[in-house]
Amino acid sequence: MSRTILHLDLDTFFVSVERLLDSRLKQRPILVGGVSDRGVVAACSYETRSFGVHSGMPMRMAKELCPEAVIIKGNAGVYSKHSDVITDIIKEKVPLFEKASIDEFYADLSGMDKFFGSYKYASELRRTITKETGLPISFGLSVNKVVSKVATGEAKPNNQLKIDYGFEKPFLAPLSIKKIPMIGDKTYLTLRNLGIKQVQTLQEMPKEMLYTVLGKNGLTIWDRASGVDTTPVIPFCERKSISTERTFDRDTTDVQKLRTLLIAMTENLAYQLRRGEKLTACVAVKLRYSDFQTVSKQLKIPYTSADHILIEKVLGLFKQLYNRRMLVRLIGIRFSHLVHGNYQINLFEDSEEAINLYQALDKIRQRYGDKSVLRAAGMGARTIGRMHNPFNGQPPTILAHRKQ
Ligand SMILES: [Mg+2]
C-alpha cells in the first residue's frame, strides 16, 4: 500500500518571526545572525538571495554583498516559542508527526484519503497555521519523505505542491542534483566533476556506477533520485531524550566535586547532541540523597547544543536542588525535547570564532575519543562513560549505577 507523507517547512523562519514582531521589516532585505563583524548569518530573507547571500556565510561578507540589508541579532528563545506554538497546532490536527527541526515537520497522512482527501486536509492545516501564527509556511505532499521535502522546496515561498502517485520520477528529473537531500557541497562537486548536473542523469545511470563513485551513500542517492524512499515518519515525543547519571561509591557532600562532575557530564552530553546534529529544549537535573530521597527539577530553554549555555543551566538547577546539606548518592542529567538542528542557531551573541572553536574541539573528539579535550572545570571527574553515538538508532544507554 502506498503512503501519503506530508512535509511542512516554515519559510525563512527566523526572518518571518522578526517581521511578525516588527512589520516595518516586511519586504526589506534582512539578515539574522551574529551582529558583530565576526558574526555568521543564521537566516536571510529572499530579498538578499539575489545578492548571493546565504546562511552560514560570515556576516561581514553578507553586509558587503547586500549593504542595504537590515541586520538583526537573532533570539533563539523567541524562535523556540514560536516553534512550540506551531508544534502544538500540528499535534492537535495530525495523529502521527515528526518534528524534524525547529521549523520543519513530517506527517504521515496515509489512509486519510477515504475520509478527507489528504491534500485538502494538508491545505487546511497550512491555512490554520498561517492564520493562527501569522507565519508563512509551505508544504509538499507525496508518497515519501524525500519527494515531499523536495516538493516543499519547489513550492516555496508560501505555497504548496502535491506530487501524484507514480509521478515522482518525472517530477525530480529536470531538477538540479543539489535539490536531493543528502547531496551536500562535497558530493555535489564530485558529481559535477563527472558532468552530472540534473537528477535525470542520475536516474539513467546504472546504480552500480554511483556505488563505485560514492560508496554506500551512492546507493541511497540513486534511490532518492528515482523517487524511492522508505524511511518512516518518526513520531515526535516530548520525552525523546539523552541522559547520564552517576551513583557514587561513597556518598559525598563535596559540592565542588559534584559541580565538576556535572560540568563534565554536561560537556559530554552536549557533544553527543552536536554529533547527532540535535538540539535540546529541556534540561533536567536529578539528585538522590543518601536517605534515598530523590529530587529533580527541569527547565525549558531555547533550543541549543552549546556547552556554555547548557552548563550554566545545569549548575543553576543543581544549586536550586541541593539544599539539604546531606550526603549525595547519585546525580543525573537529562536533555529532552530533542530536534534536529545545527548549533549555530544560538551563537548569535558570539561569532565565527565560537563556532570554529566548537567545530575544532568536536573534530578532536571524533578523532581521539570524546574525552580527549575537556573543559578545565570538568577535569576533576575521572569517568563519565558513554563512548557511542546515541543517535544511531539505538536507545540511549542509561549509565545507572556506574561507579566513580
Ligand atoms: Mg524552513
From TrEMBL:
Q: Where are the transmembrane segments?
A: none
Subcellular localization: Cytoplasm
Q: Where is this site: Substrate discrimination?
A: 14
- Which residue intervals define the domain UmuC in the entry? 5-184
Record PROSITE patterns? UMUC
Known cofactor(s): Mg(2+)
A Pfam family assignment:
IMS_C
Sorted alphabetically, the Gene Ontology BP terms of this entry are:
DNA repair; DNA-templated DNA replication; error-prone translesion synthesis; SOS response
What does the UniProt keyword field contain? Cytoplasm, DNA damage, DNA repair, DNA replication, DNA-binding, DNA-directed DNA polymerase, Magnesium, Metal-binding, Mutator protein, Nucleotidyltransferase, Transferase
From the UniProt record, list the reaction(s) this protein catalyses: DNA(n) + a 2'-deoxyribonucleoside 5'-triphosphate = DNA(n+1) + diphosphate
Record-annotated active site: 104
Kindly list the GO CC terms recorded for this protein.
Answer: cytosol
Record text on cofactor binding: Binds 2 magnesium ions per subunit.
| Chain residues that bind Mg(2+) | 9, 103
The EC number(s) attached to this protein equal 2.7.7.7
Tell me the domain of life: Bacteria
Chief localisation class: cytoplasm
HAMAP family on file = DNApol_IV (MF_01113)
What's the family? Belongs to the DNA polymerase type-Y family.
**What does the subunit comment say?**
Monomer.
Q: What does this protein do?
A: Poorly processive, error-prone DNA polymerase involved in untargeted mutagenesis. Copies undamaged DNA at stalled replication forks, which arise in vivo from mismatched or misaligned primer ends. These misaligned primers can be extended by PolIV. Exhibits no 3'-5' exonuclease (proofreading) activity. May be involved in translesional synthesis, in conjunction with the beta clamp from PolIII.
Name of the molecule in the record: DNA polymerase IV
- Name its species: Zhouia amylolytica AD3
